[in-house]
């Protein structure tokens, strides 16, 4: 196995770099420094030969009623090899063990055909996810 999955979030710098590499919305190192310690559960993927962080995923929320999966990202150079699924399996194991039966687990999907594998469904038409960028 060329990669190691660690049950911890990456550094703020790696977090920002990963999101940038995958062309996801920009987050500042300052915001990440404030945010990452508030993670309920996080995973990082390390490429063994380089020691570089090439993926991450995390869960935030109140630990009882609401859980949000966010920052699921694999560096483009390492995509398509099952790494995203590996991290999502770990996230789902955490949720299965720690989220109460009535918990509402949500995420904003940027891709079609990935999260469905773990049972996620669109909120529409019953409801519609909304957002606001400060
Ligand atoms: C989405 C992402 C995390 C998937 O990681 P990955 O390591 O490439 O995923 P896997 O190799 O485990 O893919 C498993 C399956 O998911 C599906 N899948 C993966 N990425 C997909 C994509 N971008 N679009 C559609 N389906 C996708 C495929 O069915 C794939 O099966 P296949 O390999 O038989 O084709 C990765 O593409 C990524 O970081 N994308 C950019 C950032 C992003 O959009 N993150 C999601 C934010 S909500």
Automatic annotation (TrEMBL):
Record's keyword annotation contains DNA-binding: no
All residue ranges annotated as the N-acetyltransferase domain in the record: 3-134
InterPro entries given in the database record: Acetyltransferase_Butenolide, Acyl_CoA_acyltransferase, GNAT_dom
CDD domains xref list: NAT_SF (cd04301)
Any Pfam family: Acetyltransf_7
Single GO term (MF): acyltransferase activity, transferring groups other than amino-acyl groups
Domain of life, source organism: Archaea
Protein name per UniProt: GNAT family N-acetyltransferase
Organism: Halocatena salina
């Amino acid at each position: 196995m060329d990669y190691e999955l660690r049950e911890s979030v990456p550094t703020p710098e790696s977090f920002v770099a990963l999101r940038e590499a995958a062309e996801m919305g920009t987050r500042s190192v300052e915001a990440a420094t404030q945010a990452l310690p508030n993670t309920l559960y996080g995973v990082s993927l390390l490429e063994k030969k380089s020691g570089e962080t090439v993926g991450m995923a995390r869960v935030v929320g109140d630990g009882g009623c609401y859980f949000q999966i966010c920052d699921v990202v694999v560096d483009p150079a390492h995509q398509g090899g099952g790494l995203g699924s590996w991290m999502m399996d770990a996230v789902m194991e955490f949720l299965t063990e720690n989220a109460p039966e009535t918990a509402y687990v949500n995420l904003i999907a940027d891709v079609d055909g990935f999260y469905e594998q773990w049972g996620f469904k669109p909120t529409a038409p019953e409801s519609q996810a909304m957002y606001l960028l400060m």
